[in-house]
Design goal:
The longest helix is centred in the last third of the chain and has 16 residues, at 224-239. The chain has 243 residues and is of the alpha/beta class. It has 8 helices and 12 strands. 31% of the residues lie in helices and 25% in strands.
Length: 243
Amino acid sequence: MDRLILDRKVDIGKEVLVKGPPMEALRFQSSRVGSLVTLTDSERSDFRGRVTHLSETEASIFVFDTFSSPTESSLEIILLQALPEKERMELIIQKVTELGVASIVPFKSEKSTSLKEREAKQKKAHRWQHIAMKAARQSRRARVPYVGEYRAFQEVLEDCGKDGLRLLLWEKHGENLKDVLRQQQNQRIYAMVGPEGGFTEDEVKLAKKKGFIPVKLGQRILRTETAAISMVGILQYELGDLS
């Protein structure tokens, strides 16, 4: 639903008719007549197109350009982000979307703010998926990252799939991230980033029991938004499609 994939080959300079699942992807991306979209054909090539017609059941897209390489990374990054204060969550969603994450899951840790506290000042959580959609469109991605529901720390740990590398940013005693990545070839990574005050010792112990490896990004203490954005960028550079 988050990606417009066609079951046929696409040619530049022609219109394609979209129905069924690809139509659901257009709706998910809030596309309108005139919207620019990235679509993928049956040969896994990515193209740019403009929506020229849109109804309840079908749409027409005029294809006018192609990409020399895929717009989506082969690396699947699931960012598990402790909810920060103010507008930092919105910034994180925007920037990690541009960097190619697959999904973003906000959670409550012991030292982070709660969604109730944040929403009491100004309700913004309902905009998170829209922010991801706009960032994906701006960066010409073929896929819109899914922004999950706000969860408790333990729930997020339990919901991680069996496959994939699990990393937790811990400024105190984490391993060197570069050394850990050199030993891994996983194409799915769960990247957990804590709040401004960091994780507690008990949280780290619990995460380690669930297979998470504590890592750190050097000796400097980073704000949570800087840590999240840097982490995703490093992962894409080392294992993904940034070069």
